[in-house]
Amino acid sequence: MKFNFAGRTVKGVRVENQDNYTVFLAKNKSYFVAAIADGMGGYRGGKLASEVTINFIERDFKDLNLEYKTDNDIFNLMIKEIRLIQLKLINLVKKENAPFNMGTTINFNLIYKNKIYTLNIGDTRSTNYYQKELKDISEDHNLAALAKKNKSFRKYYKYTNYLTSALGPKKESILDIFITNIKQKGILIVASDGIHNFVKTKELLKILKTDISLSKKVDKIISRAMKNQSNDNMTCVLVEYGV
Fold first, then answer.
1. How far is CA 183 from the centre of its chain?
2. What's the confidence (pLDDT) of residue 156?
3. Which residues of the chain carry a pLDDT beneath 50?
4. Where residue 153 sits, what CATH number does that domain have?
5. Which of 17-30 are b and which e, b meaning 16 or more Cβ less than 10 Å from the residue's Cβ?
6. Which of 10, 117, 186, 198 has the CB geometry, 3.0–4.6 Å to 225, for a possible disulfide?
7. Crossing angle of helices 46-60/71-96, nearest 10°?
């Protein structure tokens, strides 16, 4: 399988950019990785937490041999990585006086042999664009998503910024995993909430269907979020597979 990709992060109206991302083809060219970590904006250290998360993934997933690995094996590698990151964040608090309340989301995708393996904590979202249709892969971990599932939380349906899960030294983490089977040509979209909360589905579809480069599509998606008054950092990664 061949890949093409583009990514960009923008500070937006925030004082600093606490989003970090990575997107790369493995050294052996057999798999692809795309991940976004969105540091929790209300806490000191959000930027540090997201940087550590992305730096670990870049270090540990550049050169893996996935041959003969089962689906469970691959997810175990991804889950183990998250645990190592959490231990690193705990040690930063203990040994380097890093902020106790720092945290980050992480949406971590690995594409290998016609499958997208997705690990998600928080509300950074992965979506698959295939045959001119969009289908969300991950589920947001926030009060708004909880309100849709549980009637007793209905009054919180607008609380998209209140996370129910995050990665950090003392954060409660709900870790979701998903497998998406892929065929022929499509695009994996990974976006922080500064993007997906402010770009409507029909707007995103229109941009994806346009005959322009992936990098220009990323620019247009971010521009649309800005025009729709995004109040957060904005990060978007597009991975075209099967090209």
1. 22
2. 59
3. none
4. 3.60.40.10
5. bbbbbbbbbbeeee
6. 198
7. 140
